[in-house]
Design a protein that fits this description.
With 266 residues, the chain is an all-alpha fold. The protein has twelve helices and no strands. It has one domain.
């Protein structure tokens, strides 16, 4: 991986991590398009730079995290399903689902769902006055929706936002709960991936990681600010259209190149 490639991947991570378009999916597709060899460092890099995006959320929502313990209880309840199912299915998911074909198909399917739920939330009023008031039952339900995002291309943000909408939240609350739930989920997933990665970094690789973390942090900060305004003014349907276009374009690209195995990065 070159410095230029690391910056591109980090920008993609920061811009897409909290949007309902699948950051993992975009990184897999981008790596395949740039023909980045999928070695141990690249896999670790794509996981590690998520920490930069996470810290953007921690700082942006620091005041809410410091208001009291209630939000922590609800986030813990929502996180439990992902923790349990993630541990049980980790090897299967990593071994069989991380390829461009799966990503492209899930981008299209998820896009269709986002367009459909957008109609549901156009004039929806929240059943919960404050996020802290969400019931444990609904928090756990959102957690089960989040489990769907273990399939690359689904999008953790999309899954939790959809789960939030179907749990009585309005579009802004569903989006913000998705942001907050990302913190424990991504810290756990990133930490687990890094613990399992048996790799000694060279000085050049450490430099690439440092650059990636900084770029991901900056772009995530900007993306979250813009995303909230888009959701409030336009809803989710445009993200659905985008997902469908990207997914179909990449499927067409793979068909054109004659490589429908999903191994473009090899």
């Amino acid at each position: 991986m070159t410095l230029f490639q690391s910056i591109i991947i980090a920008i993609i991570e920061g811009l897409t991590e909290f949007l309902p378009v699948s950051s993992t999916g975009h990184m897999i597709l981008a790596s395949a398009a740039m023909n980045i060899h999928d070695d141990a460092f690249v896999k670790t890099f794509e996981v590690a730079i998520q920490l930069g995006a996470i810290f953007a959320i921690v700082l942006l929502y620091a005041k809410r995290f410091l208001q009291g313990l209630t939000i922590y209880y609800k986030l813990t309840a929502a996180f439990i399903p992902t923790a349990v199912i993630g541990l049980l299915a980790y090897d299967i998911i990593k071994g069989y689902l991380f390829n461009p074909i799966v990503v492209s198909v899930m981008l299209v399917l998820g896009g269709i769902v986002l367009i459909l739920i957008d109609k549901k939330v156009v004039s929806k009023e929240s059943e919960t006055k404050e996020l802290e008031d969400i019931s444990f039952k609904n928090a756990i339900r959102i957690g089960f929706f989040q489990c769907l995002s273990m399939i690359p291309g689904t999008s953790r943000a999309a899954a939790t936002i959809i789960g939030g909408v179907y749990s009585g939240l309005d579009k802004k609350q569903a989006t913000e709960f998705s942001f907050l739930l990302a913190v424990p989920t991504m810290f756990a997933a990133t930490g687990y991936d890094l613990l399992k990665a048996d790799i000694a970094f060279t000085n050049n690789e450490l430099m690439l990681l440092g650059v990636g973390l900084i770029v991901a942090f900056i772009t995530a900060w900007i993306a979250v600010k813009i995303f909230l305004k888009i959701v409030e003014n336009y809803g989710f349907k445009h993200f659905g259209y985008y997902r469908i276009v990207i997914g179909l374009l990449f499927l067409a690209f793979m068909a054109y190149t004659g490589d429908l195995t999903g191994n473009l990065g090899d």
